[in-house]
Amino acid sequence: MSVRIHRQHWQALLTELEDARRQRHLLTYRALVERLQLPTPAMQTLTAALEHLAALDAKGERPLRSALVISQGASRLPRTGFFECATRLGRFSGPSDGIAAASWHAAEVARVFEFTYPEEI
User: Fold this and answer.
1) 7: number of CA atoms within 13 Å, CB side?
2) CA 30 to CA 72: how far, in whole Å?
3) Can you tell me the distance from the alpha carbon of 17 to that of 119, in angstroms, rounded to the nearest whole number?
4) For residue range 75-111, what is the model confidence (pLDDT) as tens digits?
């Protein structure tokens, strides 16, 4: 995906995720798009930014902050693309729905809540 995110939106995304981490709560994709006021194609931009952040976190051997962003649907899990990205990064294997995905996601969220991230990303 060759979608770019402006620096101020990237910083705002990192701030939103850090606030969510400290408050130990999850954000929906829609809420993030609205809070960040991303230009069209907003959801593609957010997805690309979250995948880039996941790659940075994986490279730094950190829990994936993008796990804090979930669908507003009944599953309360991230979208399929999150699990596909986590699989590409070697963090998850298995179907992107069901008990294994939910269990892995819950454990990753707990790891994110407990981790202190460096500020310079």
Assistant:
1) 1
2) 8
3) 12
4) 889 999 999 999 999 999 999 988 999 999 999 999 9
